[in-house]
Amino acid sequence: MKKTNSLILTLFLLGFWSCEKDFKEINTNPNASTIASSAFLFSNAQLNTLNTGQFETSLLNCGGFLQHFATYKEVSGVGDKYLANDAYHAVFFQEAFPNSVNQINEVLRATTSANDINKNAIARIWKVYIMHRITDLYGDIPYSEAGRGYPDLIFTPKYDAQAAIYANMLIELEASTKAFDATKPSFGAADLIYAGDLAKWKKLGYSLMLRLGMRMTKVDNAQAKTWVEKAIAGGVILGSSDNAVIKYTDGPQNYNRNPFVYTARTRDFVANSFGRTNIEGGKYSTTFIDYLVKAADPRLNVISGVWINKIQDNSTSVQKGFQNGLSVAPSPDALGTYSEPLQTTIFKMDAPAIVLGNAETQLLLAEASVRGWNTASAEDLYKSAITASLNNYQIYGANAVIALDKITAFLAGKSLTGTMDEKLEKIHTEFWVSLFGDEIEAFSNWRRTGFPKLRPINYPGNATNGTIPRRIIYPNVESASNATNYQAALAKQGPDLLTTRVWWDTK
Q1: Which of 56, 193, 63, 181 is nearest to 129 (CA)?
Q2: 100 partner at 20 to 30 Å CA-CA among 13, 124, 319, 499?
Q3: Contact predicate 107/119, CB 8 Å
């Protein structure tokens, strides 16, 4: 009897194991990988970084702060009316960490072998790009513990001081630019910017070092000089062929379209409105348009148009900017007479995006020369930067090409003379024009330099007492979901207000 029971039990267990084994085999995808693809994750990290907050943060907030853009609507006027609206200020923070930060951390975890040294170095450079944009917008942020929910189970990360974040980012850039090994593989086609070209990634790393080093001029001039000189010695982006550019296509999915353009054209500048009933009431600011018209700047005709008979006219004579700080809706006919981005050039759905280019680097090098940190001629660099900016519009197609004679005539009226402050004002007013579209970086540079000298808007009920904001406020949810660390950050940095200055933005 016992033998019979034992035999039955044995047969039952064997049958159960066989069923369980068959079940697992049937429900296991033989084509699926149990190891995350670093190449796939890196492509996504690049795309998601540029997708983050393009409408709320870049266009409405930063673009409004800088008076590149204007809107008559109060709710979406957080930028040019200085209102504290969590729905618009929280977006960048809430999108960047779960998407691009988590993804780049996974890339770093997947590229620890000696054979992946180039992939790891590229990912480290890109992580600096991701993190510096977040910290420049908000100040102290989760950094050392950010994106460590897996595998470390850190779900309430501490906020690191911005000074410490900058110190680490610069060290990361120095180490990663020196780590490249031409005998080892790279990302290849999975790298949407340089297709894995190590020499170009090295230049991007040193260009970021130049950007971050120069950012510290107000708070630590000695360290700023040290890092700027290291960047110059390492070699930054100078030629347009080395510009960091992400290319897009007009479909088949929205993900493939330029995120700045797609979000703006679907959430404000809608196609069938023809400038008359824009959803958010957005237009170019009169500050921006008036400056370009007065300067006879040929870029105006490449970036701006007024809808006339359902076609955008880019003639200088019809361009007209909208006043910042207004809250009364014009009639559709009146609204249609104001300038907005030109949809046949920079506002095409497949318009490329310049991540960091030679116009910016040469303007920063010109500043370095003015400060005595660079031996090259400041004026030559200043003119070369303007030339680069005008020529770079070629990437938007034949309609955006600025003729050589126009470039020559425009440069004839440019010189870098005067006191140090007068030279810096010329350099960084040009920066404000050249980096149009990269509103986050332009906003950071404006806070550091104070140029151009913008007239603040004192909209009724604004949150800044009529001064241009110095940062973006944290998401409201942080005060509940990560309360201890959030409160510790406020104790160090100051109140969570638009007027609280970040570490490098001293008065």
Answers
A1: 193
A2: 499
A3: yes
Q: Which domains does the chain have, with CATH numbers?
A: 42-235+468-507 (1.25.40.390), 254-341 (no CATH)
For 415-447, the pLDDT digits (tens) are 999 999 999 999 999 999 999 999 999 999 999
Longest dimension (CA), the chain: 108
Helix (H) or strand (E) holding 370: helix 358-370
Residue whose pair of structure tokens reads 């070209």 in the numeric block = 197
- Using pLDDT thresholds of 50, 70 and 90, give the confidence band for residue 343: very high
Token pair 């986050």 is found at 440
Tokens of 226: 């040290």
DSSP string, 269-312: S-GGGTTSS-TT-EEEBHHHHHHHHHTT-TTHHHHEEEEETTEE
Element (H, E) at 355: strand 353-356
C-alpha atoms less than 13 angstroms from C-alpha of 173 in its C-beta half-sphere: 31
Percent of the chain with pLDDT over 70: 93
Report the distance separating Cα 227 and Cα 221, nearest Å.
Answer: 10
| Mean pLDDT taken over the chain | 93
**CA–CA distance, 142 with 417 (Å, rounded to integer):** 43
Q: Distance between CA atoms of 457 and 455, rounded to whole angstroms?
A: 7
Please state, in angstroms and rounded to a whole number, the distance separating the CA atoms of residues 190 and 254.
Answer: 19
Terminal-residue alpha carbon distance, the chain: 92
Nearest to 432 by CA among 238, 295, 275, 316: 295
CA–CA gap between residue 206 and residue 364 (Å, rounded): 12
Element (H, E) at 142: strand 141-142
Distance between CA 344 and CA 209 in Å, rounded? 34
Half-sphere exposure in the Cβ direction for 375 (13 Å, CA): 1
Per-residue pLDDT at 17: 43
The whole-model pTM stands at 0.92
Q: In the chain, count of helices (H) and strands (E)?
A: 22, 9
- Measured in whole angstroms, the distance separating CA 205 from the mean position of its chain's CA atoms is 15
**Closest among 374, 347, 397, 350 to 255, alpha carbons compared:** 350
User: pLDDT value at position 232?
Assistant: 98
DSSP codes joined into one string, 36-54: --HHHHHHHHHHHHHHTTI
Compute and round to an integer the Cα radius of gyration of the chain: 26
Which residues partner with 283 through β-bridges?
Answer: 70
Per-residue pLDDT tens over the stretch 350-386: 999 999 999 999 999 999 999 999 999 999 999 999 9
Which residues are 244's β-sheet partners? 356
- Banded model confidence at residue 36, pLDDT cuts 50, 70, 90: low
For residue 448, give every residue at least 6 positions away whose Cβ sits within 8 Å of its Cβ, in sequence order, or none. Answer: 214, 215, 217, 218, 504, 505
